[in-house]
Design a protein that fits this description.
5-stranded antiparallel sheet; binds adenosine monophosphate; D-amino Acid Aminotransferase, Chain A, domain 1; 24 strands; alpha+beta; binds glycine
Length: 431
């Protein structure tokens, strides 16, 4: 069978690669793809992003099913368009994707269904927003309502910072319609974890746990990014916490969406804040929902899947996820992102990738912002590559990843040297 993957990041390269490992899969088309999917075995790039053209392509090529990587096409209704054409596609409808595309929708939904999250209010008027901020005090968090490509959240340490964020979002329109409404919410302290599940509308299959590193620099310093690295499993999610997250967050979300008449199908990613304390009492609150897999969390997660992922998607598309299982490699997978010069503010493109670590069963370099230009791989985006390894421990995984990074070169590359530090045995969170 042939499969279509929509997207062009490291997440999509990793999904496509895992799907090509199935003996039943001939070709994984990736639209529009990147330099890695252009050169991957049994992969083929398709230079299409328009939804109707994607529908036509899937029909003409008789793809068995389509998997959507990023949020933008989901929020634009790609799943609705494919289903209207009678084509199989794994992802949420436009209505269900509002869990990610509107922070206000997600917050109202969580309150309605008793899903734990930070206290909040939504504003369109800057004066009212600032009055609320002064009443609540700092630290406080200001979020643009709509999709803002990672630029829509300001964790303000002071009232001035929070008010400045309000002026920027509601005042000067710098985020366009994404910032026309803002959510102001309570600051939560603790450790973040990503919890990702597959849903078929009714049934849920939890993926392996993972955690990413959002800040640009070592020791979780510097500006927020899309994610500078990730690892799986995330030891913070003990079996006790896992059960609680399923019971307190995931099941109520899936049941709530079904009850509201917008059943959720696709990947559901809950970004969680887990307060410090003993497992049974640690408060778990939802920071955000994403209606897709995480990037770079997908890269280590895909390294750990041992069985045929295409069969899991088929069961999900048939509404039979209760019959699906995933065999996880027990080892640790860890991915380190190599970002372009100037990332995240002004990433530079066009640097030739002069050296790439060879792919082995324990180490793969997934591409994100790369393109193949007349046979030469060049940087073409903020996050360029994700060097992802499997090893017996977090320590060994770090060693293997950084050895492979030494063999992966392009001008201006930046990366963190401490990916996975929270998962090292005996590590105490300084926070
Ligand atoms: P979001 O896109 O909502 O996940 O926000 C991006 C990042 O901002 C999160 O990964 C957190 O690091 C931080 N953040 C968001 N909401 C809060 C909050 N209520 N309290 C503390 N930090 C937050
Ligand atoms: N790594 C965070 C995200 O994909 O949203």
């Amino acid at each position: 069978m042939n499969i279509l993957v929509i997207g062009s990041g490291g997440r999509e390269h990793a999904l496509a690669w895992r799907l090509t490992q199935s003996p039943r899969v001939q070709t994984v088309f990736v639209a529009p793809g990147n330099g890695g999917t252009a050169t991957g075995e049994h992969m083929q790039n398709v230079p299409i992003t328009d939804i109707q053209e994607l529908v036509n392509f899937a029909r003409t090529e008789k793809v068995a099913f389509t998997v959507v990587g990023p949020e933008a096409p989901l929020a634009a209704g790609v799943v609705d368009a494919f289903r209207a054409a009678g084509l199989k596609i794994f992802g949420p409808t436009q209505a269900a994707a509002q869990l990610e595309s509107s922070k206000d929708f997600a917050k109202a939904f969580m309150v309605r269904h008793n899903i734990p999250t930070a206290a909040y209010q939504t504003f369109t008027d800057p004066g009212h927003a600032k009055a609320y901020i002064r009443e609540q005090g700092a630290p406080i968090v200001v979020k643009a309502d709509g999709l803002a490509a990672g630029k829509g959240v300001v964790v303000a340490a002071t009232l001035e910072e929070a008010e400045e964020a309000i002026d920027q979002m509601l005042g000067d329109g710098s985020l366009g319609s994404a910032g026309a409404r803002v959510v102001v919410e309570e600051f939560l302290d603790g450790e973040e974890a990503s919890f990702i599940v597959m849903c078929d509308g009714t049934n849920v299959l939890a993926l392996a746990t993972s955690q990413d590193h959002k800040r640009l620099l070592d020791n979780d310093q510097g500006p927020n990014t899309g994610g500078m690295g990730a690892y799986s499993p995330a030891p913070i999610i003990s079996p006790t916490l896992h059960n609680r997250i399923m019971r307190e967050v995931i099941h109520p979300t899936i049941q709530g969406m079904a009850k509201d008449g917008i059943p959720f199908t696709g990947f559901l990613y809950a970004g969680l804040m887990i307060a410090n304390g003993p497992d049974a009492t640690r408060l778990v609150k939802v920071l955000e929902f994403n209606c897709r897999m995480g990037d770079p969390e997908t890269q280590p997660i895909m390294m750990r899947i041992k069985n045929d992922l295409s069969q899991v998607f088929e069961l999900a598309l048939a509404g039979k996820l209760d019959q699906a299982t995933i065999d996880w490699d027990r080892r640790t997978a860890l991915g380190v992102v190599l970002a372009a010069h100037g990332y995240p503010a002004t990433p530079r493109s066009g640097d030739p990738i002069t050296q790439l670590a060879p792919d082995t069963p324990e180490c793969r370099v997934f591409h994100a912002g790369t393109r193949l230009e007349e046979g030469t791989l060049k940087t073409a985006g903020g996050r360029v590559l994700c060097v992802t390894v499997l090893a017996d421990s977090v320590k060994r995984a770090q060693q293997a990843a950084y050895t492979a990074i030494a063999q992966t070169q392009f001008s201006g590359r930046q990366y963190r040297t401490d990916i996975g530090w929270r998962a090292l045995p005996g590590t105490k969170d300084p926070a």
